[in-house]
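Archive transcription. Copying these from loose printouts into the bound notebook so they stop getting lost. Printout 1 of 2:
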Amino acid sequence: QVQLVESGGGLVQAGGSLRLSCAASGRTFSPYAMGWFRQAPGKERELVAAITCSVGSTGYADSVKGRSTVSKDNARKMVYLQMNSLKFEDTGVYYCAASRRPPSMAPDRYDSWGQGNQVTVSS
């Protein structure tokens, strides 16, 4: 079984920073890529950032590019999302996801999901 658990979310003021963590476990856990998604109230789930587990190539949504960094620690089975200069629009439930396919922006390409972690940005 594969399990993903997010942590690090919470309330932060606009302009501040936040670091989300995703802990992975499971005997068969060997994804091609890991992704961070978020879902705001009334909106569809969207990709924030993704990273390949071998090479470490990264990709970001235009809305967060330049102020967010996704990283990983394969030995510890951890994935991180550092977000700086947070905006109100960054508010939402953030999900960690794993995919056995190459990085994709589509949620349905990911096989395993965490329970979600709330991030609220206040002004």
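Printout 2 of 2:
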Amino acid sequence: EAQLVESGGGLVQAGGSLRLSCSASGFTFDDFAVGWFRQAPGKEREGISCISKRDGSTYYADSVKGRFTLSSGNAKNAVFLQMNNLKPEDTGVYYCNRFYSPIAWGQGVQVTVSS
């Protein structure tokens, strides 16, 4: 029943921006921190950012801190990842999931940053 769906991937040149969206359903969104993971070619999947709607707290991995911003705005069941100043090393497949108790993984969305 629980489901999270990502959208918004694409191809962008270095220094550009992309905005990813995550729509959640089937669980009480406020009870779980929700965020983003990514898997670069040849590397393990890593958590890069999450937000708790309960208190609004956020987490960012050092690799994206200062460039990526995770927010929910007034949306009750969605989060958005604004990615600015993208670098080629940001290339990978991006996944949305519950950060500490993830459910089944989807296919994610491809983000490709060219130099």
